[in-house]
Structure formats: C-alpha cells, structure tokens
C-alpha cells in the first residue's frame, strides 16, 4: 500500500492501515522494513504557524480569479427563443431581489447551506430535524452544481456525451489547430518576461536502465511498484533563464511541453512540468526541470 487517507478505517474505529498494522505486516513478512522506513519520519514538534500565515496570505493573493462576465452565456441562449434574463447579485438585499423578480415568468433562487459528514450533516444534529415547516409553496431543489443544473433544465439544454478522450482543453485546441482567446495557464500581468539559454541534456544512465527493463532484467526496483524504476528517474534535464523585461516586479509560470511522435496517437503537445518564479525589474531567474518517464 502506497498511501492511506486520513482518519480511521471505519467510522470511530480508532484504527488505521498504517501504525500498528504496518508493524504487524513487517513482522509477518508481508512488507519489508525497508519499505516502511522509506520516507523520513515526521517531526510533530515544529511550530510553523508564522510561515503558514505568510504562505496562506501569499497564495490567496496569487489565486484571485477574474471572471469574464458569466452572465453572457445565458443571455445569448435566451436570445434564441426571444426571452429575457435578469439578475440580482446583492444577496443581502432581499427587497431588491424581490423587485428584480417581479413580473417575471420564473425566478431561480440559489441558497447555500451548511454541510458536513456523517452525524454532523445538518448543524451537528444526528437526528432528523423537527423544525422544518412547509409554510410556503416554493419548490426547493437541492443538488450539486445547482446553478448549472437549473440553467440547463430551464433553457432545455442537452447533455453532450464525453467523447474527447485524451483531447481535453489545450490538447484539443492543439490537435484541431484552434487558437483560443486565452491560452492554457495564461495569467494577466503588469510586466513582461523573456526566455533564453534553453538547454536540454540527457541523463547519462537513462538509456541503459531503459534497455535493461525492456530486456526483462532487474533495474533496481525494490519498492513493489508495477512499473520499471527507471520511469521515475530523470531522462532529460531542461534548463533556461527567465528575465523580467518590464517596469515592475512580477511572477511568471514557465511551462514545459513535449511533442510526442505522430504515430504515438497522442496530442501534439503534452504538459510535463511547470514552475513559478518571481523576479524584480530587469533581473534574471535561472530555472531547470528534470523530465521523467512518468509524471
């Protein structure tokens, strides 16, 4: 077993697949001791709160997403059958919402509720709730992704079958020579970057390990995996330099793609690595990747 999810094996069993069970597996010979001690031990006495707060703040600021008016799609759909769509986004103003819904044929109201697991599903109440009163005749429809579900049902949209296979997102655009409005991974920035000094070198022993594996020999795999250990080793090293050519400091997410042969039945470009670097004005930031057989 490579990993286990947090928590007990069964609800409130106070047991785990690791811990005492791992010790028992070593004693009865099911698992080697080297396999159990492969990872470094965890130090549970390190106070990381100060760094944690900084990291959370940094990640929150960097992950802010700008939505490009999600109301355009339903409006375009409504024009096809000559209907109109309005909206009210100030959820605190119930009077304004009521006025916006007046004289409309239908009103879609999206309400969020608390959620949990097992006995804490509804306000930590293990029993059925007895304080729900049907004092109104409004239909409450609870479902995941309820907004999209309501939009599809109300506008009689069909559900397309999933037939894309490997050709998803940027892979489909590359295969069909489609130029998207926004490239995969594109982020808006106040500065610009320049790439240079691209070098690709092959690992010295990568080919020998591959040939040994294909010949049926042992290639040093002692972890019990179902694939050759050489697939986890670095095959190529890719190095390059990123330069901030703008007027302000900024961050750039460099991406590495490979181009499989035409006969491999693969998309023309496949993402195999990415890294984010922050640099000040006119500064250089060297970067490198190790390209492995698997990712």
Automatic annotation (TrEMBL):
The entry's keywords: Carbohydrate metabolism, Cellulose degradation, Glycosidase, Hydrolase, Polysaccharide degradation
Enzyme class: hydrolase
Chemical reaction(s) catalysed: Hydrolysis of terminal, non-reducing beta-D-glucosyl residues with release of beta-D-glucose
InterPro entries: Cellulose_deg_GH3 (IPR050288), Glyco_hydro_3_C_sf (IPR036881), Ig-like_fold (IPR013783)
EC number: 3.2.1.21
Keyword Disulfide bond belongs to the record: no
SUPFAM superfamilies: Beta-D-glucan exohydrolase, C-terminal domain (SSF52279)
Superkingdom, taxonomy of origin: Eukaryota
Any GO BP: cellulose catabolic process
Metabolic or biological pathway, per its Swiss-Prot or TrEMBL entry: Glycan metabolism; cellulose degradation
MF GO annotations: beta-glucosidase activity
PANTHER family, sorted: BETA-GLUCOSIDASE (PTHR42715), BETA-GLUCOSIDASE F-RELATED (PTHR42715:SF2)
Annotated family: Belongs to the glycosyl hydrolase 3 family.
Name of the protein this chain belongs to: beta-glucosidase
Species in which this protein is naturally found: Rhizoctonia solani
């Amino acid at each position: 077993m490579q990993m286990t999810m947090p928590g007990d094996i069964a609800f409130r069993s106070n047991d785990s697949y690791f811990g005492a069970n791992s010790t028992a597996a070593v004693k009865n010979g099911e698992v080697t001791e080297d396999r159990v001690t492969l990872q470094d031990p965890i130090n549970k006495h390190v106070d990381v709160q100060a760094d944690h707060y900084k990291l959370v703040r940094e990640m929150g600021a960097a992950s802010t997403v700008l939505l490009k008016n999600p109301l355009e799609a339903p409006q375009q759909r409504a024009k096809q059958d000559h209907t109109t769509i309005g909206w009210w986004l100030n959820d605190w103003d119930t009077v304004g919402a009521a006025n916006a819904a007046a004289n409309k044929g239908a009103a879609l109201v999206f309400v969020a509720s608390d959620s949990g697991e097992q006995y804490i599903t509804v306000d930590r109440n293990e029993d059925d709730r007895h304080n729900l009163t049907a004092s109104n005749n409004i239909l409450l429809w609870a479902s995941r992704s309820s907004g999209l579900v309501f939009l599809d049902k109300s506008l009689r949209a069909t559900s397309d079958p999933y037939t894309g296979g490997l050709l998803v997102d940027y892979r489909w655009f590359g295969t069909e020579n489609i130029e998207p409005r926004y490239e995969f991974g594109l982020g808006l920035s106040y500065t610009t970057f320049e790439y240079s000094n691209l070098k690709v070198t092959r690992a010295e022993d990568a080919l020998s390990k591959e040939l040994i594996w294909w010949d049926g020999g042992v290639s040093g795999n002692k972890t019990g995996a179902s694939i050759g250990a050489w697939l986890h080793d670095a095959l190529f090293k890719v190095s390059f330099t990123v330069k901030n050519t703008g007027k302000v400091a900024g961050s750039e997410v460099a991406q590495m793609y490979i181009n499989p042969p035409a006969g491999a039945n693969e998309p023309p470009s496949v993402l195999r690595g990415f890294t984010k670097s922050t640099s000040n004005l006119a500064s250089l930031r060297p970067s490198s990747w190790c390209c492995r057989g698997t990712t």
